[in-house]
Amino acid sequence: MTTRFGGQFNIKDMPEDKCPVCGYKINAASDINGNNKVPEPDDITFCLKCAAILVFKDDLYVRHMKPDDLIDVSFDFLVFLIETKNQIIQFNQKYRAARN
Ligand SMILES: [Zn+2]
Question: What's the gap in Å between 50 CA and the centre of ligand 1?
Answer without folding.
Answer: 4
